[in-house]
Amino acid sequence: MLLPWELLILLSLTGCLAERNTRHGPVFTQEPSDSIFPLRSEDNKVFINCKAKGNPVPHYKWKVDGRYIDMDLNYNLVEGNLLINNPHATHHGGVYQCIATNVFGTIISREAKVQFAYLQNFSRKPRNTVSVREGQAVVLLCGPPPHNGEIKYSWVFNGRPSFLLQDTRRFVSQRTGNLYIAKVEASDVGNYTCVVRNMMTNATVYSSPTPVVLRRDAVMGEYEPKIEVQFSETLHVTKGSSVKLECFALGNPVPSITWRRTDGNPLPGKMKINHSNGVLEIPYFRPEDAGVYECVAENSRGKNVAKGQLIFQSMITHNANLQWECRASGKPKPVYRWLKNGEPLVLEDRILVEGGRLAVSRINLLDSGMYQCLAENEHGAIYASAELKVVASSPDFSNSPVKKSMLIQRGGEVIMECRPHASPRASISWRRGGEFLKDSTRWTIMEDGTLRISNISESDGGRYTCVARNPFGTSSSTGTLVVKEPTKITVPPLSVDATVGESIVLPCEVCGDSSLDPTFKWFFNGKLIDFNRQDHFEMIGVGSAGDLMVRNIQLKHSGKYVCMVHTVVDSVSAAAHLIVRGPPGAPEGLIVGEITDSTAQLSWESGPDNHSPVTTYSIQARTPFSIGWQAVRTVPDSVPGQMFHATVIELNPWVDYEFRVVASNNVGVGEPSMQSKQIRTKAAVPDVAPGNVSGGGGRRGELVIQWEPIPEELQSGEEFGYVVAFRPLGTSTWKQTVLASPDASRYTFRNDSIPPLSQFEVKVGVYNNEGEGPSSHVVVVYSAEEEPSEPPSRVWTRTLSASEIEVYWEPITQTASSWKIIGYEVLCWEEGMQESDAEMVRVTDPAALLSGLKGSTVYLISVRAQNSAGAGPSSPAVNVTTKKPPPSQPPGNIEWNLTNSKIFLSWEHVKAMGNESEVTGYKVSVVSVIEESLKTSEQMLAYLNSSRVAFQRDIRDCNILCFTETWLTRDTLSESVQPPGFFTHRADRNKHLSGKKKGGGVCLMINESWCDHNNIQELKSFCSPDLEFLTIKCDRIIYQENSL
After folding, report:
1. Which residues, if any, are the signal sequence (predicted)?
2. Domain span holding position 372
């Protein structure tokens, strides 16, 4: 016998196994629900959920507004769910239903209303200024942008964060969005902005501001109310709906608004009137709410009335039954009468009146009309009105014919709708060809007239006709059923492992009816892959293959991939999982434990291993003194992947550290963890001595000691400083001084008794508040030397030009041991000025060149020696006068020509001005120009006394000569800046030699033996002064260079 708990477990297991193995019809586990979707969402897709369980697994279809959906580029099935791509508010909004079917039958989900809300922006065009008088009324237009869905209007005044409050003077219509101000006051001047909010998407847009200004010419007088906002004269309202009536008036004084019913009945308690009295709301409309309503606007100048009738609307089909309830309260209790079209209602067998209840059975067309319930007692009577419309028509397929052609796969199920418009409802029958169909195991005519055919075979193809009948007639509609072979995935995608950076291909190949064109779509983790926006994905293959290539795989690509294949008759799918191996994720929960002056204990938790186990951890540290993150030594030296703690060693004392941990596996190095909180190691005695201790120099009587300061990260604690010790060489007693500045790098000891260039032993140590650290090695440092006591002798000068002077002197003999000459200072100043204003030039040799001087000017020159202690006395000043400047004008009228292999160059003589030196000669240089670049490797200079020169040169490969002129004077040599011209040439056969003539009147002649007749003609033509370019066509030109 089983114990109770054993029996319970057995029953549970039996139930689970039974549920898993028992074949049964579909049962919804998830149904669609009413939804509002914003247009232009991030992925521009809408998902409507539907899921059912069953054995065998159900397949799905969807309806929208009663019509079956054909799967296309906009509609896709994803495991029962309906995916809408690129939704459009007009095309895709409606009432959706999900249909799940297996061999046992079909179920239909509840209806789900799908809406698409949007709100576009206002135009940015500035709005016109509104000019009004004080006391006048004004209406500001909102002009909302295109939108869909319920919207709410508000106004903002002068950009304030809160909305404009409505009151008896100001009203915002929720039908138009306009702002109405009954009477303008001075405080109303400013900018008004219309604000529109979509209540479905919460999107809000703002108009451009409308400026309102006051006219100063007059003030508006009083006038009676004018109702500017009013409701319709007749409004049909259905049962249970809510109706809002708007009413607002303009006037001076500000009108008051009241509401009333014309039949004298009080307004029901459920009615709502807003705080400005401008809106009357009637929720949950019932027949007794019908009647005529009045809005009364009144001020001291008069009143105005707007009225409208609310009619309870009811539409009944022919032969249906109707029941209306009319209730009224009063004392004594009222009695009821019913009127039809203003006359007492004639009672008959079909029409029954009991108190305030009216019942009409088997309604016909004659029952149409206006009905009124009259409730009265001795105090009066009240009415409630309603309209009855009876619809009667023969069946009509004009708006909803049977689908002309339907494609369905063999073995599938088809649902053929028959929805004629008919009143009363038509009876439906179906026939195939000329034979009427009856219900069978595969053929079912549903209650609504829909024909369902399951387990379809090829023989089911053909023409099907729906026949609809009612008392007013018969009509039919025909469609054709075409049976196709079902689509099958023959090569499905397979689950695969991959490493970050690799590329893979997921196959998806189908077979099926050759007349159907399959469309492939891929989904990643339930979302459609957009190949235009995702660089990692590419669909390859044509025809019956739609393989997916995933390039440069990243960790984010792990997940489920579904290949969805659509044809016009069916959809099939296959799924696979991609597992991506990558470097580990960042370790987590990093904590710094015990800290010493050189160690820190760390612990952490592992992060995701990304399908490849962690092999090692490494630790990095950062200080205010480091450049980025640096690896640090740990114990153990290599931290294995199964260990989550380590000790960092060899840290510097009294330094702020941050740490992070990095995991590695066989794929690579992962991302670092979050950095730890900043910690500071404990202080310790400094253990680093100053380096590069040296010294020397300074003034007489000084001992200068220098060293490299210890960096802050090596000072090991607070109150860091230096201990400087020194003693004369050969003595035993150290003299010490303490420098409390951690940045100190120099110490000067002053004592006039110290002989120049004396030797001292020196060392520098360190300390902090933890104690004294090591000292540097002992080095020998010399004390300062004394300045030179003698000036240089035998100073003399030589004038080179108008701007340059050379100075010479005898060097000082260095026989004394107290100073060492390292250079000289040359002072130069104009006669009449002070030596303190002199220009100074420092040199190491006993000679100097002074340049940049003025021509024909007297200068004073003196020289003094210099060593590390400073400069010595100056030599006596000597006088020197610079030469006159060279001619300022270049040679003019330059001419050149080529005759018998010789180039002749001539120019006019240059005449010097009165303050310039005379011309003694000229300098001519010849420079080759090859490929339009100056080449000075073949340069020839000629210094001439005449103004004419001739050259004979070898022109190889038509190289071009460029002549520049310079001239020689008695004082200096100066170069011209105006060459007569240059020409370029390439030596290839039949290529042009071309160049621009830059000198006026220059003519180039070449011996006729060098080129043929045609070339000579071209050369001679260049001699014309008005030509700007030269062209020479020649194969080769040869000539020899000889000096003249």
Report:
1. 1-18
2. 318-391
